[in-house]
Design brief:
This protein has 112 residues and is mainly α. Helix content is 65%, strand content 11%. It is built from 4 helices and 2 strands, in the order H-E-E-H-H-H. The longest helix is centred in the last third of the chain and has 21 residues, at 83-103.
C-alpha cells in the first residue's frame, strides 16, 4: 500500500504541476508527463499493482498477477511500439479474465 500511495503521490503531483504532452506516433497516441526518476516510479507502479496480486492469498488473484506480470514483460519488449498503448490493450484483455471469474457462480460452501 505504501508503494502505491507514494507512486500515486508522485504521479498526481506531476499531473497537477507539469504539462501533459500527446502526439500521434504511428497508429497510437503517445502521451506523457515529465516524471522525475521515471524508472523508480515505474518500478513502484508495477510493485504496487502486480505485487499485491502476486502476494494475495487467493490463488486466482496470484494467477492474475502472473498473467499481468507476463503481459508487462511482453509490453516492455514492445516499448518502441508505445508501451502505454500496448499495456492498456493488454490490461483490457486481462480484465476479461476477471469478468469470467466474477460471473462464474461459486460452489455453495457447506457449513456444519
Amino acid at each position: 500500500m505504501a508503494a502505491g500511495a507514494a507512486t500515486a503521490a508522485v504521479l498526481s503531483h506531476c499531473l497537477a504541476t507539469r504539462p501533459v504532452t500527446a502526439a500521434i506516433r504511428g497508429h497510437t497516441i503517445g502521451h506523457g508527463v515529465n516524471v522525475p526518476w521515471m524508472p523508480l516510479v515505474l518500478a513502484g507502479y508495477l510493485f504496487a499493482t502486480l505485487g499485491a496480486l502476486l502476494l494475495a492469498g487467493d490463488g486466482r488473484l496470484r494467477t492474475l498477477g502472473v498473467v499481468l506480470a507476463a503481459g508487462a514483460l511482453a509490453c516492455s519488449a514492445l516499448w518502441r511500439l508505445e508501451f502505454a498503448s500496448t499495456w492498456c490493450a493488454f490490461a483490457a484483455v486481462a480484465s476479461l479474465l476477471v469478468l469470467g471469474w466474477v460471473r462464474r457462480p461459486r460452489a455453495a460452501s457447506s457449513v456444519t
